[in-house]
Amino acid sequence: MSGEQPTSGPDLSSGPDIASGPDMAGDPDVAGGADLSAAARRNIPVFDDLPIPPDTANLREGPDLHPLCVPLLPLVGVWRGEGEVAYPTIEGPQHFGQQIVFAHDGRPFLSYTSQAWLLDGPGGKVVRPAAREVGWWRPQPDDTLEVLIAHATGIVEIFYGQPRTTVSWELIADAVVRTQTAKEVNAAQRLYGLVEGGDLAYVDERAMAGQPLQAHLSARLQRIVG
């Protein structure tokens, strides 16, 4: 959502509670993708004319997860829910819907895509499409995470991070590159984690538009595939 240039809103540090212990996901079967819910029987749409196997967001289908990606196993799936965006330069807070897909093709990385849409309030009607992100999560043998995220607004970020627990991950931007037409972003960090009930929650902090690093948005998403 960093593509939406912020205008005054409350601190989002009180967003979804990402617990610090390994039991934060509640039922470990949810974190391990072992439940037999409707989500477990779905996958991302498949085109059957590709010359190579398609990505999968369902660990029961497709290639085996690469051993280096096993620590990221709880993320694999399609997630959908709502969040809130606020910043000193945003009139708000504003509410948004979001879908995030973590998928893999058997190689040592996860693909990441995010689509968001502004809402007229919590659970409200769609106002318009919002931020788009694509990227890759690249786990390394020493447990370091290299994460590349490109925004449709002309911003590319390189994050480094590590797992905080078996079901939470903290990322800090090492580099932020902008096109000439992109808005100012000088620093960023994110915290992702599975919370009670197996939902995926995250908090994004940014330093942009001349402001110091502070909470920008947060969301809580439910698994719909995987």
Brief overview, please?
With 226 residues, the protein is mainly β. It contains one helix and ten strands; from the N terminus they run αββββββββββ. The longest helix has 4 residues, at 28-31.
What does this structure look like?
The protein is globular and about 45 Å long. The chain has 226 residues and is an all-beta fold. The chain has one helix spanning 28-31; strands at residues 77-85, 94-103, 110-119, 126-139, 145-151, 155-165, 168-178, 185-194, 200-208, 214-225. It has a ten-stranded antiparallel beta barrel with strand order 1-2-3-4-5-6-7-8-9-10. The protein has one helix and ten strands; from the N terminus they run αββββββββββ.
Task: Offer a few descriptive terms.
disordered N terminus; mainly beta; 226 residues; 2% helix; 10 strands; ten-stranded antiparallel beta barrel
Q: Rg to the nearest angstrom?
A: 17 Å
Globular, elongated, flat, extended or rod-shaped: what is the shape?
Answer: globular
The number of distinct helices, counting runs of at least 4 residues, comes to 1
Give the overall pLDDT as a whole number: 86
Oligomer category: single chain
Largest sheet: 10 strands, antiparallel, barrel
- Unreliable residue stretches: 1-16, 19-36
Q: What fraction, in percent, of the residue positions are helical? A: under 10%
Q: Provide the structure class.
A: mainly beta
Q: How are the strands of the largest sheet arranged?
A: 1-2-3-4-5-6-7-8-9-10
Topology:
Layout: H1 28-31, E1 77-85, E2 94-103, E3 110-119, E4 126-139, E5 145-151, E6 155-165, E7 168-178, E8 185-194, E9 200-208, E10 214-225
Antiparallel strand pairs: 1-2, 1-10, 2-3, 3-4, 4-5, 5-6, 6-7, 7-8, 8-9, 9-10
